[in-house]
Records
---
Amino acid sequence: MIKRVLFLSLFASVTVSAQIQKKDAEIERYVQHVNKDSLQHHVEKLVSFGTRHTMSSTTDKNRGIGAARTWVLSKFRNYAEKSGGRMEVYLQNQDLQPDGKRISKVTNLGNAVAFLKGTDPNDKRVIIISGHLDSRVSDVMDSEAYAPGANDDGSGVAAVIESARILSASKFPVSILFVAVSGEEQGLLGSKMLADKAKAENWEILAVLNNDMIGNNRFDAPENSGTPKLRVFSEGLPAYDTEKSAVSIRNFGLENDGAARQLARYVKETGEKYVKNIDIKLIYRNDRFLRGGDHTPFVNNGFTAVRLTDYYENFDHQHQDLRTENGKKYGDLMEFMDFEYLKSNSAVNVAVLANLAKSPATPENVLMDVKELSNSTKLSWEKPKTGNVKGYLILVRETDSSTWTERIFTKDTTTIIPYSKDNFLFAVQSVSESGNESLAVIPKISR
């Protein structure tokens, strides 16, 4: 290590940083405020609506998805009072016509939204955290049967509500959108409505954290399974504009370094930094095998989005009619939830949201110089468009490593590092005065 630092000092004022980064005290406080009892209350209330099927009643005050989304909006409005007028609460909705698939009657589709505006008017970045409000039983078209939807996805909506409660009084430069979408079980309809709006209005979406089933571990994990695990799904090759970018992805060996993969690594690094007793697993698929989630419409529109979900998924406790057969109980009931696990996973969301929202924008025009063949690598970049920057982190990993293994801090915007571009992958992050890192940017080629 001493030789490496001496080598580095010949080229630029850089230092190799410790692998355990210093924690931001403000984010630590937010994480500590995540409350298991609050999360349990949120799930209990969602279950009490009997069913939250997308085609259930929107006028009944006590039962159905209309009552559920009204309640979520009321929670958001309570939290908005702490925001100094910066949180806007509204229902994004539209009437759907029967489609011959999973919508059999005219249906009012509605997303419950709370938009916490950032404090920097020049910073247009938006972070989205989502869960889906609707529930179902075995027959996806049955809008009347009791469908508690405790874990799928009362858990994700509870995490969204809890995140809004904790962060509503924050003063981040970046905006955060908290949303409980509808229509997931009928074909990702609510998230598509929101993603299409974001695309049409040119939102500058920094990241989407989709939470779907994040509250069931204790009942399904094998004995002696160790630290509780949370999966983060991320696409490899981008679904958007793949043909145009495939050639450079192949040429530069970046099949594992798309924007979603960088966000997934960020979730793992930040979540495990601030939350105890959690093992965040990077799953190299956009979603579970041959399945989809509410982040997918955002991915398909070219936005950076990932899915957070239980590691041990139990199909007996989702998409099931409530029943008991041969002594086995089926259905998505609260009794099969693990609220300590839900608390940890909600805390991961809070930590990632806060760290991203406090970070500067990513460095601009990040380039790798390839004019010379050598065992060192020259990188350069420009200051980010927004945010106060303390310096930059150059990230390094071997090509077969899933996460960044070394970080080199510098205040310069051009530097040479003693690693061969043949053997290693690199990225650059902006770092704020309080140590909050931006997402990582892979360098482009400068000839």
---
Amino acid sequence: MKNRLEECKAILKKYGQEHLLNHYEKLEEKDKEKLLNQIENINFELIKNLYANTKKEQKQGEDKITPIEYLDKYKLYDDYKYYENIGKKAIQEGKLAAVTMAGGQGTRLGHNGPKGTYDIGLDSHKSLFELLCDSLKEAGKKYGVNIPWFIMTSKENNKATIEFFEKNKYFGYEKDKNIFFFIQGELPMIDTEGKILIGENGLIKEAADGHGGIYESLVKSGMTKKMKQMGIEWVFIGGVDNCLVKMVDPVLMGVAISKGVTVACKSVVKANPHEKVGVFCKRNGKPNVIEYSEITEEMAEACDEDGELLYGESHILCNLFNIDAIEKMGANPLPYHVAFKKATYIDKDGNLVVPDSPNAYKFEAFLFDAFGEVDEMAVLRVKREEEFAPVKNADSAGVDCPKTARDLYKKFYNLD
């Protein structure tokens, strides 16, 4: 331990982060071990560069943004059955796995626990996890196959998530055979001077690295290797907070296979030209998602000859990947985006600081930043009322909240 401590001191001195060991001697032995592990696993060069980027003026590049082609699922006509049969065959052959990103807490919903454990208020009182599991079991029964379910948790909620599944007997899904947990990556939070923060527990304060960390987490955790051993070729990735997410969709699978692409995504048409959502596009000829803040008013309102918005396909975090594409995307970290957040921390004198305004930088990667790794992808427009009922805000917000999700769910399943 002494040698490790000296090595950590040397690393911290090199990067001006010596304060991380200020309270080391006050920690219990197990926490001393955790802190040294954290220090040894931090990419300080990356943190240094990320901090430097916060000081640079973020300029919009001279990227050429153009519309992307899409298919409307309900205007495929004769092709619908063609795509459906191709996808159905692949699903029945056991080539599909589902991944749910469930690293968040239900704080914004006033819920104390992992977001996936939240009850949206149905008469059944089923949690988001159980609603998603129900749809997987239903699909498995329909196609005569078990769909392996991989759940990405965070360090913060991993234990509580697994305990919730154990308590509920995995909702009838087979543990260790059809359900697997892995943990999302994290990055330290830093203050406005570039110093890494110490959390209330005396350890380095870390935050999840965004949904773009999914690829690297799948690879590093050995999950892609496990999938390949199971004969998986296609992986659907979605969020835990969409209670209508359709993880098993033979039409989406069929489109991807038929068109020979390694990525296929679902979209819903924007509710209005200025809805604050990211939309699919091509950036310098490559597939991409452009944030609403990057779109000019003219682009937002532009329509084609049929009156359809040129930039109207919203990214709803419903994406299908060939497993080789995931491994390629997970080989290197994606670019990180910075967010300025409020973070409680312990200062160098051991005082607890509870800020009333943002005081720290958090770094996140976005899943769609990896789309540029492929030359082509398929976009399939689906109906919002059938596949997109997210639970992101408290009911007081009136949009993307438990009430709106509950109403959509009940209407879709005829529960009224």
